[in-house]
Amino acid sequence: MGTAETAATRTELIELFDGLRVADVRDGMDWAGLHTKGTVSPEITPLWQGARMTGLARTMRLRPSEKAVPALTPEEYTGWSAGWYREQYPNMITSTIEQGDIVVIQSAGLDVGEIGSNNSLEWHAAGATGIVTSGGVRDTDECILQEVPLFCRYRAQKMVQGRVEFDALGVPVDIGGVLIRPGDIVVADGDGVIAVPVEHAVTVARYARQELENDKQGRRRLYERLGRPLDDTVR
Prior knowledge:
Structural class: alpha/beta
Number of helices: 6
Largest sheet: 8 strands, mixed
């Protein structure tokens, strides 16, 4: 796990941030003096309304390919395409995922669907609570139907073959202008994505929780004044 273990165990870290909103975590970062840190570019948004996730960053970096696509018949392309996956875009990350991880991907920066309905569901089945990428997602209708939390910069159509290669696993990555390291805390909801450096996790979570409870109390009083039934956001 690396640096996260210096602050708390995996389970303790996830529990510290359980139920906290991105807004609360942003406040907690401010309380910790991290006013300019953590907030990922608002260009990276949830693929579907209501998506939210909390977990520990499991990072991967991709890169543009400089390998030429050979002249192939459609029949030959089938085998070549499968070979590209095996050799240039191998599935290195699934076996490393632990329960409570968030897969965090620095995109190659091309108009390509590096994430889709298959690999996102596979990572979720392996224990990931969701995925955030600085790039694109394809098969979006199926991704939305599957309801695996996905935060991305854009929707895309293109496959990775001839375009994108695997670069590195378990390295610091740049996501929307924020450096996210393996084991950092990632929280995402309708307000976007925020990353908490793991060495500040305990302090940030403490004051984020304070702000959440204050917000619940204030809104609960207003609910009662208005005669609105109480929901989970104010209990």
